[in-house]
Amino acid sequence: MPRRLAAIVAGDIAGYSRLMELDEEGTHARVKRIERDLIQPSITEHYGRLVKTTGDGFIAIFDSPVEAVRSAIVIQQNMSGRNAAQPRNLWIEYRVGVNLGDVIIEEDDIYGDGVNIASRLESIADPGQVYISGGIYEQIKNKLVCGYESLGDRKVKNITDPVRVYRVLPDPAAFRTRDRRGTVLILSMSIVWLGIAGAGLWYWLPHGKPQETSSILVLPQTSKAQLPPPVTNPSTQASEPSRPAVTTAQARPQTQPAPSTASPEKQAALQNAIPAPPTSTIREPQMNMLQGGSFVMGSNDDASEKPVHQVTVKPFAISRYPVSVREWNQCAAEKACPFAAAGKDDAPVTNVSWSDAKQFAAWLAGATRKPYRLPTEAEWEYAARGGTHTRYWWGDELQPGIANCKNCADLGAIEQPVKIGSFKPNPFGLYDMGGGVDQWVEDCWHKNYQGAPSNGSPWLESDCGSHVIRSGSWKNDARYVRPANRDSYDTNVRYPTHGFRVALSP
Question: How far apart, in whole angstroms, are the C-alpha atoms of residue 368 and residue 225?
């Protein structure tokens, strides 16, 4: 029998018997649809092979442990988004285990301790979670951007030696490998020190003036960048020598939305590279000022893009390009962003979560004293359409060489997006508004536009686990680069095709 070293992914649905008892035919149909539309494509996209399905589970093998864990994360996060539209008792949640081992390969199955350990990890995983073995952890710990929690050595059924187990954390910033006893000890010490600090503060405060002490507020150091910065008038700021001067007419913000008949030429004339203050050393994104107005949002191409509805957006500026590696690394150099991006300076930054993008916008706002933010979903589509009403901004038919997507350009197989601005801009002078990198927007994910705001404001919830991404990427086909196309991803999870651009209120 041929043998090989492989990363094995085993998945199984938690509470499958209960779901079948509630709705046998409906559950069966949903599971088959998930296997067809999510599990099989995710495994294939990450260079793996689906070995078999088992009714309520699956087994896959990968040459790369990194791609195996990435695939598992994608499956879990997409399942989280699908479950959001279902009542809690109808959620389909997978437990996933990933192990590295030597296996026996047959045409339609695989065998060996490596497979058994992956299955055992799956069986002890919590619903919606990914558990990995120590062998997988050692291979991916410095290669994959996510967090890990060490669960120690576990004795699993029919395996002689204990298995070192790690839980993959959905929050990339939560890199924890210490054991639970250490966590409890640190928490206890923190409580003690907080008590001592509180007693000391009470002792030194002037107790005779309660009206003064009641106004004391201790803020985290990072809160300064999160506070709304004062809006400066762009017309009073000095222009950088390398950029054209901004006239008063160009810089003056519009107080009312322009009529929907505004031509693309008029919109393009309002392009405005917002200059940095003379004392700033921050390289700011180049911004195009858009007049705003009414447009028809959505399409009938997909259920998530319905109903088609009219939206009016106020004047705003949006960055001419997606945020680049160079711009991102300014934030990273000041320890305000969580990681330094790799790649060429003029490439778009990738592998960014929604929370990362928000962190960059807050840092940029604080550093420049301007109200930088993520664009709303309505603003993004308005800007991407460029005043047009066709399927793509250039027309109804796909044209080669217009956008950076899998079947949009003759670029061959590439692992990274090309540099920003490599393709023609749309009628508003904006580059890569379709293809290149997926782009985060401010809005929480909703499965359609029922109840969506019509004034261009972000559609938010008090606690949303996923946010909207737009544009499609260099790895997606042409249907993703349509201005109306929308998708979602988990708020705190990074993915190699995800980037963003920023917006600016007048």
Answer: 10
Q: Say if strands 130-133 and 94-105 run parallel, antiparallel, or are unpaired.
A: parallel
CB proximity list for 271: less than 8 A, separation 6 or greater: 288, 289, 320, 428, 429
Specify the CATH number for the domain of residue 283. 3.90.1580.10
**215, 468 Cβ separation under 8 angstroms:** no
Q: Are residues 117 and 243 in the same domain?
A: no
**159-187, pLDDT tens digit by residue?**
888 999 999 986 544 433 333 444 444 45
Q: Name the β-bridge partners of 488.
A: 468
Question: Which region among 61-65, 150-154, 252-256, 388-392 has the lowest average model confidence (pLDDT)?
Answer: 252-256
Q: 360, 372 in Cβ contact below 8 A?
A: no
Overall pTM surpassing 0.70 (yes/no) = no
What pLDDT is recorded for position 486? 94
Residue 154: helix, strand or coil by DSSP? strand
Q: Do 137 and 252 fall within a single domain?
A: no
**Which residues, listed in sequence order, are joined to residue 101 by a DSSP beta bridge?**
6
Give me the amino acid identity at 335.
K
Inside any domain, residue 225: no
Q: How confident is the model at residue 464 (pLDDT cuts 50, 70, 90)?
A: confident
| DSSP states along 84-142 | TTS-GGG---EEEEEEEEEEEE-SS-EESHHHHHHHHHHHHSPTT-EEEEHHHHHHHTT
Between the alpha carbon of residue 87 and those of residues 34, 83, 133, 354, the distances in Å are 17, 8, 33, 26
What is the residue type of 294? S
Check if the beta carbon of residue 99 is closer than 8 Å to that of residue 8: yes
Rounded Cα distance, 401 and 226, in Å: 40
> What is the span of the domain harbouring residue 142?
3-169
Token representation of residue 133: 């073995």
Q: What is the dihedral of CA 455, 456, 461, 465, to 10 degrees?
A: 160
Residue 484 covered by a domain? yes
Total number of domains constituting the chain: 2
Residue 347 lies in a domain: yes
105: Cβ–Cβ under 8 A, 6 or more apart, which residues? 1, 2, 3, 4
- The reply to whether 475 falls in a domain is yes
- Note whether 299 and 384 are within 8 A (CB): no
Cβ-contact 340, 360 below 8 angstroms: no
Nearest to 137 by CA among 163, 104, 103: 163
CB 343 within 8 A of CB 350: yes
Closest CA to 354 of 466, 225, 228: 466
What does the alpha-carbon distance between residue 260 and residue 324 come to, in Å, rounded to a whole number? 32
> Percentage of the chain with pLDDT > 90?
54
CATH code (residue 92): 3.30.70.1230
